[in-house]
Amino acid sequence: MTAGGILVAALLTMAVILLGLTFAAMVRRTSRDLLASLRNKREARIRPMLLSVVTDDEPDLSFLRTFSKKDLRIVESLIWGLLSKVRGSSKQVLVKWLVESGAIGRVCEQTKSRSRVKRARSVELLGSSGIAETASFVADCLHDSDKEVRSVAARALGKFSEKEAVVHLLSALTGPKAIPRSIISMSLLHVGPQAIEPLMDGLLNRSALVRSVCVDMLGIYGAVKATDRLIGCLQLDPSMKVRVSAAGALGRLGSPKGVEPLVRCITVNAPRKLRVAAVASIGQIGGKQAISWLNSAMLDVDSVVSAAAVEALSKMGDEGCIILTELSTMDLPQSLIANQWLSRREINLSSRKRSSREMAGA
Amino acid sequence: MVNVLVVDDDPDIRELVAFKLTQMGHTVTTENDGEGGLAAAIQEKPDLILLDVMMPKLTGIEVCQRLRDDPKTSGVPVILITAKAQEVDVERGFAAGADDYIVKPFSPRELASRVEAVLGR
Predict the structure, then answer these.
(1) Tell me, what's the ipTM?
(2) pTM
(3) Per-chain mean pLDDT for chain A
(4) For residue B104, which phi and psi values (nearest 5 degrees)?
């Protein structure tokens, strides 16, 4: 065979192989599209039946027993999708079906899968189910080797609304596989009021980060019963970050009990961050005593602290603004700073008026 | 027969709410964003509007404010649909003129009670 002949044969062979591969890809795509289309038709048939039952006053999924295996796979996927959308008797009946069909068991097993995508997906599904018995599988994934799986597990754990979830979440803040504070905090927020007791226990944790998160969350939850413990943190915690968080939390709680300990933070030789946080919180708590202390704080040698006092007074409504306006007209040490506030306020007001006029004109 | 407009960008919630309301004997139309919802409310003048708070283009609260500002729609009752973590939006919703709210994930029974209560006022 000549060289030309070999070349032609080689080119023909390549062409045949390419055609074959193209044909195989087309067949594969077509069959995939066909399967997807069949699945969509099944789903379109099953979905309204499921929604109709789920929204019933007495939902009952026993009719699913007559379904084929293929249809039941679709039902399972639809039910997982609906779990996070409903609560009450509707959710209970969906969860019951998942348990009885073995779907929950299969998903729990998948939390140990070699595929990180399957582990993450299974943890997400268990979180949406909220079944208390599966929380331990999700909690185990807080220590997964993959960072994304750990984050998904942290988010899922918050949906269980269980006290135990708080303990696991707080433990995930520290260690070599620590989960970012922002994710843990968001998840703690989803747990609900049941989180308050374990968060209060967390104030005794060895880690300053854990104590700081607990303090912040107690403030966000408005846990007034934690006031005394938070005052203790403000006064005695060895970590300045925790003390600053405690100052902020006491402001959110708004309990007048917090004023005196906060005032001690601005009268003693405390770091600036703590004095600023204390001043802001005194303003949040409010009251005549607060106004008097903020007035004094305006004389702080640190301009950042005195500015914070002005800010706090200005946020106390009409009373605070009246005091600042009056101070600006007097000949007192605080008058200068009150004047500066008044000037800034007037500039802001006139620029807002100008913007409104421009928008009205437009 | 009561005409209800449901505005939510989540297709599952839209469908679930629509199903429940249809079971209750109401006629339901749906929209998937705030702008579409506002336009539909002005055009169709429904007897009740269910509005999700967090939506693209216009939020539920913005839609509610505009409905209250327009004399043609100011009297239409509005129920806000808000996620559990956004309960702080409820105050803003009432300030904007909403009549009631339901929290997601929602209970179909609770939805029915709220709808009946608002329509009965």
Answers:
(1) 0.85
(2) 0.76
(3) 89
(4) -90, 145
